[in-house]
Backbone:
């Protein structure tokens, strides 16, 4: 699920594609390490990560920690990864965290250490080494060279068509919006959103809704963006390095920009190692999707035929039942007439006798 947070500090935001409300914002993270006293283990005192988080937030004030999560825990240390709104707060946080923390029931305090967290992101050496050592690839062909981004964790709602509204089950990411967003960096050759193929197959299944069943993982999606030139790919990697995605709804008429809402989401950017947008893979997926859709259509036809036969059988059964009921009513009327006639005859004989 996407890690989405509200954002009030837009001072360091960089435009990606303002027409669809997308910007980039530098990531600023810090590692906060607590050196636990040995007496805790000696006296079998438990450590509450939640209490530690609350205590760290208290020490950090007035600095706002956008997020705070446990990244490592052992008998000796507990390490938290904190995300800050901007780099200006980092130096102040490091100074404030040069202290000791003691929770209720602890015999001793725990020393705190804080430093800037190192961000992981592929380098030029990584992709050049990968494609140099990879076998069976032709650098003259798109998708078989360093030209494609593989991006994970993009929020669906941010990349949906602007004229589509409704709940999450009615939204789906748009190839057009994705293309428009990333062509702002360099010339894009093509894009792909794998989740759309799955949803197309889900739509064909009998009894499914418009976009199939939604799961929590369907709040975000993966995407592939292929640039036409190697220079464009490098430019995109440099632009996204150390950045998170910021969404600010685009202007609709008159709006006070100072009060507009904004949100950030951490995304994972890597170079494509699978050749997803190579011509061979595109043809293979096209054939696979066509085959899958053909199989699903055959299943639908069989289901429709079974349903039609079942309806005809039920209709015949209903007609037979109605016919039997009519026959019973006719027999009943005949019997009633005979009984009435018999009663009338007996009554007439009775009067004649007396």
Residues:
């Amino acid at each position: 699920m996407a890690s989405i947070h509200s954002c009030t500090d837009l001072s360091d935001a960089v435009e990606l594609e303002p027409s669809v409300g997308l910007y980039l914002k530098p990531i600023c993270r810090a590692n906060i390490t607590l050196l636990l006293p040995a007496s805790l283990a000696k006296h079998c005192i438990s450590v509450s990560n939640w209490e530690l988080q609350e205590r760290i937030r208290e020490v950090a004030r007035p600095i706002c920690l956008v997020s705070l999560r446990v990244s490592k825990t052992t008998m000796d240390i507990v390490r938290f990864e904190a995300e800050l709104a901007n780099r200006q707060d980092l130096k102040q946080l490091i100074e404030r965290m040069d202290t000791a923390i003691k929770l209720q029931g602890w015999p001793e305090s725990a020393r705190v250490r804080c430093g800037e967290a190192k961000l992981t992101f592929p380098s030029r050496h990584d992709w050049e080494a990968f494609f140099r050592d990879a076998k069976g690839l032709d650098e003259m062909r798109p998708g078989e060279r360093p030209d494609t981004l593989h991006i994970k964790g993009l929020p669906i709602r941010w990349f949906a068509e602007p004229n589509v509204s409704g709940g999450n089950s009615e939204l789906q990411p748009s190839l057009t919006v994705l293309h428009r967003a990333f062509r702002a960096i360099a010339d894009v050759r093509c894009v792909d959103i794998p989740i759309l193929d799955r949803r197309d197959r889900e739509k064909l299944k009998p009894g499914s809704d418009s976009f199939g069943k939604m799961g929590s993982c369907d709040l975000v999606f993966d995407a592939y963006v292929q640039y036409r030139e190697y220079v464009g790919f490098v430019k995109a990697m440099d632009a996204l390095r150390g950045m998170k995605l910021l969404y600010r709804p685009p202007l609709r008429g008159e709006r006070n920009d100072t009060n507009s809402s904004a949100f950030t989401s951490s995304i994972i950017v890597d170079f494509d190692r699978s050749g997803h947008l190579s011509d061979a893979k595109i043809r293979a997926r096209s054939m696979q999707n066509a085959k899958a859709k053909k199989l699903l259509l055959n299943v639908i036809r069989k289901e429709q035929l079974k349903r039609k036969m079942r309806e005809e059988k039920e209709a015949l059964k209903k007609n037979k039942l109605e016919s039997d009921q009519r026959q019973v009513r006719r027999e009943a009327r005949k019997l009633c007439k005979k009984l009435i006639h018999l009663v009338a005859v007996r009554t007439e004989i009775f009067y004649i006798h007396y």
Observations:
- The CA atoms of residues 345 and 351 lie 10 Å apart.
- The chain has eight helices and 14 strands.
- The mean pLDDT is 85.
- Residues 279-353 form the longest helix (75 residues).
